[in-house]
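Shape is hard to put into words, and the shape of a protein is harder than most. The fold becomes a row of whole numbers, each drawn from a learned catalogue of backbone shapes. The outcome of that step, for a single protein, is printed below.
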Amino acid sequence: MENEEVLFWQSVRYPKVKIIATIGPATNNESSVRELINAGVNIFRLNFSYGTYDEHKQTIELIRKLSRDRPIAIMQDICGPKIRITNLPKPVTVEQNSSFKIYRDEVNGLSISHSEILNSLDVGDLIYVADGRVKLKITSIGDLYIEAKSLTSGVIKNGSGVNIPKGNLNIPAITQKDERDLEFGAKMGVDFVAVSFVESAEDIKKAKSILIKNGSDAWVVAKIERKAAVDNFKEIANESDCVMVARGDLGAEIGLSRVPIIKRRIIAFANEHCKPVIVATQMLTSMINSSTPTRAEVSDIANAVLTGADCVMLSDETAIGKFYKEAVDILRDTIIEAQSIYSYYIDYSADKNEIIAKCAVEVSKKTDTSCIVSATETAYTVKQIAKFKPQKPIIAVTFNEGVKRRLAIVWGVADSIVLKRSDNAEDFIKSLDGTDIPKPFVLTMGSIIGKQGSTNMVRVFY
């Protein structure tokens, strides 16, 4: 990160696409978290497939302590109904065209977690094991087990992930463990909750209802990683606050060759509908054990930037990787280089609620202003401004600390400032004089300060 006299975001060297880093054994300590914040991480992801509540509580408190001077957010990623191989004492090598049995009850032999799913399967259905390296096709269904033929050879281990592309598996996306995790996350004040293995909008509604019941206004992120989620994407996205293209399980579910196309469609829809969108999985996998990435990985990051992603996410790279800081450096530098050729000022049509935001972006384009400042109670106007992709930085001004942190996920938001609540527009405008925002700047605000949905003016503030 540059050491400059001006504010960091005034430099062209600030990344408009945000960085999410997963905390894990390699980074769950004060020096590493501080290092990652200084390298440019905007959001820390906590994977609730692992760890105890006491451990997560300590991590959340550490992140909050180290990010008092910067809007750093926390994402809780609940594990959902992840299907895994169970009751397999030792690894098994499966040969192509060999027969394979999966028992309904693990007492009888190799089975899967959530074995009730087997009741939803039919002859001819496919089962992918170990990220799709082993592909099985069901040949018969019995009372004790289903039998399948292996279409590929490979090794299966206890705990190997299982993907079943068939939809309507009659398994809830929110498990009992997830419900307990959501209650904990609400209590700890997490900023985002990522819901795994979503199949329908109802899954998002259930997660939101649990959060609201427990006093949380966290934004809900729908992870698109199942075939059913792709089929129902528009309804899911409309119900969600953000979406994530979770390419790992998605690749196993729909086939690797389809993932880039589906990713682009998801990003395009999310951009047009003001939904922050995250691209995740294997961004820099080689850097788990290498200090330098592959050329393909760097190209992948640049492609995510150029196609409109709001965020890119690191998983194992920062959770268990040896070169976690270097991975964030590569991510940040690649984002900055890619955005230098980005096509700014996207000319989306604007509905009546988006006219002010589009106008602000147009004014910023045609005037010698430093940035776009948006007064926001809920962050919605800021997301609308980001939709039209202004080249100049977006600065959010709010009265709410939670909104400040959640804006860490939105494209182009360079900073969020919390001011003391004002009762009227005149007092609010005066309070802006006490900030570091350089004049002139474009300002959007409402004539009724602090009222949700009241943004109705845009002006140049000299």
